[in-house]
Structure formats: C-alpha cells, structure tokens
Amino acid sequence: TFNLFKKGKNIEQIAAERDLTVGTINTHICHFVRAGEVNVFQFVASEKVKTVTSWLQENKPESLSVAKNHFGDQLSWDELRLITNHLAYEKEAEAAD
Fold first, then answer.
1. Coil, strand or helix: which one is 32?
2. Can you give the pLDDT of all 97 residues of the chain as single tens digits?
3. Any alpha helices (H) in the chain, and if so which ranges?
C-alpha cells in the first residue's frame, strides 16, 4: 500500500490494484500516518484537523463515536481515524523529544 501511495496512486486505485476494500486501504493509511510516514494533511484539510483536534482536546470523549456524533456529516469516520492517528503520532514524537 505504502509503495503504491508513494507512486501517486489514490486510495481507490490502490484498493483495486491490491484487490482489497477501500476501508482496508484506509486502515493501512492510518497506520502510516501514526508512524509519521504519511502526512494527515494529504487527506484532511488543515482547518478540519485543527477544529477536530481542538474539540477532542477540550472534550476528551470516551469513544470516537462521541466525536463522530458531535461532528455528524461534517466529518467522515475515515477522517476521524486519520486525525486521531495523527494526534497519536504527534504525542509519541513529543514524548520522544
């Protein structure tokens, strides 16, 4: 998945080429975001990342469902997972410093 993404393929193209679902490829991309190998901003607008990050930090929801319910159709499950993986990467990177 990572090599195909680096070659410029989008999620749908990678899924078709690998004969996997888009959801599976999104899970792979989340892994790469958490590892710091892929930038979340390639998938989610910076303003949306900022808005969701602020809300998550202020509200500290017990589950992602609470966040998804709050944002409704303004935020997809994939975007939410990408953002939370990005935050996990930032937290781990900060702890390593």
1. helix
2. 999 999 999 999 999 999 999 999 999 999 999 999 999 999 999 999 999 999 999 999 999 999 999 999 999 999 999 999 999 999 999 998 7
3. 2-6, 11-18, 22-34, 46-59, 64-71, 77-96
For the record, the structure tokens of 81 come out as 């997972």
CB 22 within 8 A of CB 13: no
Alpha carbons 17 and 61: distance in angstroms, whole number: 37
Cα–Cα nearest to 37, from 3, 75, 78? 3
Return left, alpha or beta for 39; rule: phi > 0 is left, psi -120 to 50 is alpha, else beta: beta
Its pTM surpasses 0.90: yes
Angle at 17 between CA 12 and CA 23, to 5 degrees: 40
